[in-house]
Amino acid sequence: MPTARRTLTLTLLLVAAGSLIFTTGAAVVDGPADTAADGNLAVQPADGPNGQYAYLNNDDEIAIDVSASNPNIQDPCPVSSI
Fold first, then answer.
1. What span, in angstroms and rounded, lies between the C-alpha atoms of 25 and 40?
2. CA–CA distance, 59 with 38 (Å, rounded to integer)
3. Are 43 and 60 in contact (CB under 8 A)?
4. What is the C-alpha separation between 73 and 49, in angstroms, rounded?
């Protein structure tokens, strides 16, 4: 029985180590990034009910804000919801 437990432990450790090693395989760390959609991709707040939490800031960058500082939310936590 100890041999089976040792084998299982070793297998799990190898799987965990392999997962940690290969998780960054898709990240561009020190090479050029894919820029195929640079001029053709636009991100904007949605028109749905959750679109009020996202807005374009002064630099025309999308900002996601669920706090009272968001200009699109008048009352972030109404008393009736508590």
1. 26
2. 17
3. no
4. 11
What is the spatial distance between Cα 72 and Cα 66, in angstroms, rounded to a whole number?
A: 10
Distance separating alpha carbons of residues 56 and 42, to the nearest angstrom: 12
Q: Give the largest Cα separation in the chain, rounded.
A: 65
pTM for this entry: 0.41
Render pLDDT for 68-80 as a digit per residue (tens, 0 to 9): 788 787 765 666 6
Give the number of other Cβ atoms within 10 Å of residue 17's Cβ: 10
> Domains of the chain: which residue ranges?
42-73
Six-digit token string for 11: 């297998």
Residue type, 20: L
How many angstroms separate the CA atoms of 10 and 45, rounded?
A: 48
Residue 64's DSSP bridge partners are: 54
